[in-house]
Amino acid sequence: MPAVLAVGAMASVMAEGALAASFAVSGTSFQVSSGKLSSQGLSSFVQTDRSVDGKGHPVALLGIGDATLTDICQAAEVKTPLGTVVFKLTAGGQAGNVTASNLVIDGEDLVGDARFGTAQIGRDASTLDEVEGIKGEPGKFGLQAGDIEVSAVRSNAWSATGGNFRLKGMKVDVSLDGKKCF
């Protein structure tokens, strides 16, 4: 569900539509999973990511405040002249929790067992204030919560950025026909 806080400020400006995304998505979505995600603050609304070819990808922008994650996995399939390669990054587990601040995930979906504190569903996206800088367009559907906890997290995403990641026990693996996260 699965890098940068100068980007947090930039994400804020991008989310408000004042600045185009600082990068085009690759055209390849990826898997993100975690045993548990806990955070102070969640803001979310629908937007469209664009790949270099101009193709649009509808996503739920999930702005997450200060997050703690366990057992994270991120994996993407990439076609190469040698065949399909799986690029996989894992962290956490016995090495300790992963932390991130001002995490922004552009996801197609999010699956897990969730608890939301002080949830506000249907709030105008331009008035979201739970995660600094995460606002949508006026009149658009939004939701936010004061704190969240999601177990057995599974997501397919187009991009993920964060102000400050600490990846304890990080491992990167690239392999032909390798195993993805789920």
Summarize, please.
Residues 1-20 form the signal peptide. The protein is mainly beta. 5% of the residues lie in helices and 58% in strands.
Structural commentary:
The chain is mostly beta strands. Helix content is 5%, strand content 58%. It contains 1 helix and 10 strands. It has one helix spanning 6-15, and strands at residues 30-50, 56-70, 72-80, 83-91, 98-107, 111-117, 120-124, 141-161, 164-166, 171-176. Strands 1, 2, 3, 4, 5, 6, 7, 8, 9 and 10 form a 10-stranded antiparallel β-sheet that branches. The longest helix is centred in the N-terminal third of the chain and has 10 residues, at 6-15. It is globular, with a radius of gyration of 16 Å. The protein starts with 5 loop residues before the first helix and ends in a 6-residue tail after the last strand. The relative contact order is 0.31. Keywords: Signal. Pfam families: DUF6230.
Structural class: mainly beta
Mean pLDDT: 87
Percentage of residues in DSSP E strands: over 45%
Segments where pLDDT lies below 50 for 5+ residues? 1-22
Succession of helices and strands: HEEEEEEEEEE
| Share of helix, binned | under 10%
Radius of gyration: 16 Å
How many beta-strand elements?
10
Largest sheet: 10 strands, antiparallel
What is the distance, rounded to the nearest whole angstrom, between the alpha carbons of the first and last residues? 12 Å
Number of helices: 1
Shape: globular
